[in-house]
Amino acid sequence: MSTREWDVVIVGAGPAGSATAARLVSSGHRVLLLDREEFPRPKPCGECLSPAAVDALGSLGALPLVRAAPHVPIVGWRILPHEANAFTGSFPDEGEGIGIARVTLDPILVELARRRGADVRIGARVVDLLREEGRVVGVKLGGRGASEEIRARLVVGADGLRSVVVRRLGLLRRAPRLRKLALTAHLEGVAPLDFRGEMHLFPWGCVGLAAVGGGRTNVSVVTTGDEKRALAGLRDDYFDAVVARTPVLSGGRRVTGVLATGPFDWPTRSAVADGALLVGDAAGYYDPFTGQGVYRALHGAALAAAAAHAALESGDTSAAALAGYERARRRAFSSSERLQHAIEALVSRPGLMRVLSKRLTARPALADALVAVTGDVRPVRSLFSPRLLASVLV
Ligand SMILES: Cc1cc2nc3c(=O)[nH]c(=O)nc-3n(C[C@H](O)[C@H](O)[C@H](O)COP(=O)(O)OP(=O)(O)OC[C@H]3O[C@@H](n4cnc5c(N)ncnc54)[C@H](O)[C@@H]3O)c2cc1C
Q1: Among 92, 100, 282, 299, which is least packed by CB within 10 angstroms?
Q2: How many Å lie between the centroid of ligand 1 and the Cα of residue 301?
Q3: Superfamily of chain region 5-72+97-176+266-340
Q4: Ligand 1 atom with the shortest distance to the CA of 48
Q5: Where are the domains of the chain?
């Protein structure tokens, strides 16, 4: 057992964990950041950062490092519904997104946390939580015959979907639903995308495209959970078959392995517990369609770090002392979560989608407004302005 007690142990060095670590060491806390993987590690992701995620990288102080790495600016989205009009939406002038591979982005953020003063241990898998009198007082590492206990005043679960911290805390609201699965890989040789992400919708799911720099395009195939059996052991064949029948990808050559992930729908009851809090996907995730996950991870990290700092300073890291974080998360994310559900309902109804895409093609301002909201540049309520609503109805 380690005799040292850390102020904070963070489980998971994805964007949420690294950003929380960088912020907390900057506030003077002793932080240990753990990840089970070696970096760079691939992460199934559309790799398209919204303008709000770019701003969040700026407020973290990471943007110059990100801009110095291979990336592609993204000015908006082109949506191509099945057998209906395609439409294009642009981010507002003040906001630009970025396409960047996670094997590039994530190590930059880990390194930022390390340079600010966090201790980073990679290849360290957390298997359980330490508890005393009902509260979390640390984590237990395991795997490959090794076992170690690490004590901390606060444990942050930033370990993504299938979070072990969430499961050990018993905070999963219900079992995850396998509504969808995703397969992602990089292709070279795809025709340039005009600095936009593209989403191709089909009755069976969708294919998302984003240039990520270095001549590569991220291709994310999202299909229904019913395909689970077809995918078992056949993910490369399945992915390559989708690429072969998607005209815009003709000429593309897969240059990475295919990563599979799902289910995405991991709802939590709360993001705080006595001695612990959750951030990023671990705090709850629904669906990758609108590509807001990295923003939620980075902005959530800012909210988590502020709450953790206040709790550590007061000497009280109970759930009650951390409750303000739970409320701040709800204020920040609940309206975009409702919008995600609404968009999913629309996209799964081709008839409705045909009507809507006609309107959006004819009224580019409406498409821009939708893209601005899903890029977290404008609040969801901006979609309900009388002027915009009138333009939908006439
Ligand atoms: C198909 C798909 C497409 C997506 N597309 C986009 C997109 O285009 N844009 C966007 O913004 N978001 C997108 N997202 C969402 C985005 O990928 C996530 O929201 C984001 O990665 C969340 O960051 P995180 O730090 O919370 O978790 P992660 O990035 O998952 O990091 C979690 C880390 O925890 C580590 N870990 C896990 N368990 C343990 C353990 N027991 N011990 C130690 N370490 C552990 C993992 O190794 C990992 O490094 C997409 C998601 C999917 C599935």
Answers
A1: 92
A2: 13
A3: FAD/NAD(P)-binding domain (3.50.50.60)
A4: 8
A5: 5-72+97-176+266-340, 180-261
Is the CATH code 3.30.9.100 the one for domain 180-261? yes
pLDDT tens digits along 338-386: 888 888 888 888 888 888 888 888 888 888 988 898 888 888 888 887 7
Give counts: helices (H), strands (E), the chain.
12, 19
pLDDT at position 3 is 62
Atom 26, ligand 1: which residue's CA is nearest? Answer: 280
> Which atom of ligand 1 sits closest to the CA of residue 41?
49
Residue carrying the six token digits 């907390």: 24
Q: How far apart are CA 389 and CA 394, in angstroms?
A: 9
Pocket (CB within 6 angstroms of ligand 1):
11-17, 34-37, 43-49, 53, 125-126, 158-160, 164, 182, 184, 220, 261, 264, 280-282, 288, 291-295, 297
Q: How far is CA 290 from the centre of its chain?
A: 10
- What's the pLDDT band for 117 if we cut at 50, 70, 90? very high
